[in-house]
Amino acid sequence: MPGTAPPSPAFGAVLAELLYYLALAIPVAIGITVAALAVPESLGGVVARRAHRRRTVGRNP
Question: pLDDT tens digits, residue range 49-58?
Answer without folding.
Answer: 776 666 665 5
